[in-house]
Design a protein that fits this description.
By secondary structure, the protein is α/β, with parallel strands linked by helices. The protein is built from 12 helices and 15 strands. The strands form 4 sheets. The protein has a 5-stranded mixed beta barrel with strand order 5-6-7-9-8. Strands 1, 2, 3 and 4 form a 4-stranded mixed sheet that branches. Helix 2 packs across helix 4, helix 5 crosses helix 8 and helix 9 runs antiparallel to helix 11. It is elongated and about 110 Å long.
Length: about 350
Amino acid sequence: MSKELLGALDALETEKGIAKETIIDALEAALTSAYKRNYNQAQNVEVSFDDKKGKVHVYAVKQVVEEVADNRLECSLSDALQLNRGYELGDDIRFEVTPKNFGRIAAQTAKQVIMQRVREAERTIVYNKYSKYQDELMTGEVEREDNHFVYIDLGNVEAVMSHNDQMPNEEYRPQDRIKVYVNKVEDATKGPQVFVSRTAPGLLKRLFEEEVPEIYDGTVEIVSIAREAGDRAKVAVYSSNDDIDPVGTTVGPKGQRVQTIVNELGGENMDIVQWTEDPAEFISNSLNPSEVVDVIFDENNEHACTVIVPDYQLSLAIGKKGQNARLAAKLTGYKIDIKSESEVSKETSDIMNEDSDSDDEL
């Protein structure tokens, strides 16, 4: 070993942020294994690296005992006292056993340890950097696509976007720059793995924070989001400031703010509705653009209700393939059963007739 190694350790500490002591500890442990492996030794050994001169020393460690049962691991008290009168039973004595040609093995081992530590440090740096971006919006460049993922370059790391996280109305071509939501960051065996999404509700929230200053600063709050990515989304907003219209603020003048987000998401329609503490009013708002006559809550299920709408509004309330009702249920957290006024009227009439028949029988 030479002073070149010391220079390399100093450089790694400066450039990669890897503490010299960390590498030395790993190096000593690796050299201990290398010594035992290359010299078929089973004794208790320690390897010491001199960080001043760059030299390696191998020591056999033996315990002081009354009678020696294994001379590879033990030293008699009488022999120990000849070395130093201060030794006592149970003490450990270190005998240097550094082989003459151990320098070559040490150099090879040092190279392997340093390379491993550099890889680990780089992985840690990347993981620490991108784990801070979890649940955040980032812009990346599409690199390629296979049967499993779209691969996106975020700078120092390649992120992956699964099929479920890809917008059904989008195609991803190499060199396209897109905004993605960081779903998860894992410190995997092969290196940090960053998972991103274009379909997550969190993407929509971050886009509104970028576009609407009042949402970013907390004046207007996004309470909940229900989204069928690429098609339609509902966003419930609220403001504790009575002077602010949360829906109008979010939509923007002539709908410019929300239109920017619609364009970013390839035409995904947006319903911005006002959240209120009154669940009936919130449920009514969530079924926008349809009108609501009444909301009747289920006595046996606090998260279920029946919503009554005008006959001519029934299909609008339910929406194409039930989408409007489905999104409203996701937005509010209620199971919503939508009925027309005539349907409710008929049910009420039938019940009254049944009651009347029962009275006649009596």
